[in-house]
Fold:
Amino acid sequence: MRLSVIGCGYLGAVHAAAMASIGHEVVGIDVDARKISALSRGDAPFYEPGLPEILTAGLATGRLSFTTDMSQASGAKVHFIGVGTPQQKDGYAADLTYVNAAVDGLLPYLSPGDVVAGKSTVPVGTAAELSPRVAATGAALAWNPEFLREGFAVKDTIDPDRLVVGVAPGDDTSADVLREVYAPAVAKGTPFLVTDLATAELVKVAANAFLATKISFINAMAEIAEVTGADVTQLADAIGHDVRIGRRFLGAGIGFGGGCLPKDIRAFSARAEELGRGESVAFLREVDEINLRRRDRAIQLVVDGLDGSVFEKKIAVLGAAFKPYSDDIRDSPALDVAVRLHGLGANVVVTDPEAIDNARRVHPQLTYNPSRDDTIRGADAIILVTEWDEYRRDLTPDHASTLTDGRVIIDGRNGLDATAWRNAGWDYYGMGRP
Ligand code: UGA
Structure:
């Protein structure tokens, strides 16, 4: 099928390449000429495992192309909208400028029978508002939210755990068209849920709100553990054995960040207020606050570990990305901790396997070193803030002892073996662990 994908950021670029990889003819469109020329050369503008391969393969078959020219969308049967919906500069609500611009820019090139499938995360009610503009061209607007995780985006797009399609009242064709687009996943038995537009929009924000709540729940338990001597990782293991609860997303630590969870819960709160139902999701404010408090806690542990002051102490910060397998530093708890330690007068050195360039662009005041060992060398304290394998799994206390004079390690992700570090003579501090 011929498809267009408007917006070639994380979501759109992966979606375009993934759709080409399952046999569709896809044009990716974006206003950013630099991004388009990189993608056209097969260069992924961000780190995402598996993306370079499907990008190169798609370009080589001729089924995948990228352009800044919106008119190239004409002739496609389905037009995916995958532009960003960032947090507004002066408030919590989502900024819909790019969604509106994408839809308006597309209108002249739509034909009757086309489907415009929104993938961006939007406040509930957005699709119903956009729908008449699309319908006036004879095309239909559907909402098909995306649930991909950075780091697993290619797999999540080609082989998702569910597909959700919201359609306007009386639209009985768009869902079938999208079923055809996702034929390989549908053939595998992937649940395919057809809903109304509002439900589809809400599914997305509800899913992210639930995940954020789950993380903040366990981080709240970490706060209680800290004043009682309990161990939150054992607690998570124990409650996680209950299949109704489940162990995943019960990783206590410095909390969630990234381009989605933080801004999505804030936008959800803002939208609920507009709808007169602010109290229904008032707990999301608490979720946000618990999350931000964990960064304070991590900093406090460094200060305590260094006997009350980090001033002019060398602190090795392991990680800058908001999570491993990503170079994304948007709202990264790791980088926030590094910046604040720097603000306290510490001599901070940050390392990360993928995110240094992005981090340096936004925080040029910090010192970066691509080598883990050089970062650690001579440090007074180490803080692990992004659980890349090379820090969590591969860094042994014995090896670290050969590099540093200090013996203080703060495990911001509870990924290290506390006993092994302590036995090697280190002061180990976890999050919510004795
Ligand atoms: C999230 C959702 O997981 C995806 O389903 C969704 O599609 C995506 O947002 C989106 O809306 O686009 P992502 O932002 O890639 O995906 O990252 P997650 O894997 O959800 O991690 C988010 C943050 O939570 C990270 O900072 C991670 O370190 C943190 N986290 C995760 C914890 O602190 N503890 C955990 O147990 C799990």
